[in-house]
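pasting for the record
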Amino acid sequence: MKLIDIGALSQLSGLPASTLRYYEEIGLIRSVARHGLRRQFDAPAVTQLALISLGKLAGFSLADIKAMFAGGGAPRVPRAELHLRADALDEQIRGLTRLRDALRHVADCPKDDHLECPKFRRLMQFASRNAPATGGLRGRAD
């Protein structure tokens, strides 16, 4: 069995060694040996780290991801939760697409005064309805 030094695993995964040590500490990955003081991992650790990264991208917490790996074998993927997260992403994409299209319209709008543009006014209404409750629209004040 070929072992991967923590430094090499760090390069392969793109994660700092400190993150790998933390993941080991909380039980997400497991070193199988030591070479001096350096941890060594087996080849499946590379796949495990890729799955952890994918789970994080999908919005799962490290605790959620750890629960998916409980049982030692292949990860238990919560398919229903993945569908819900995919649906939420679809809605976010639709909203961002509408916002992008509105911003492009406003940028190219022939009206001298944007307040006369119906699309700009709808964009302002959308923004006021969807602004964070902790301070309104974010952005520069200049």
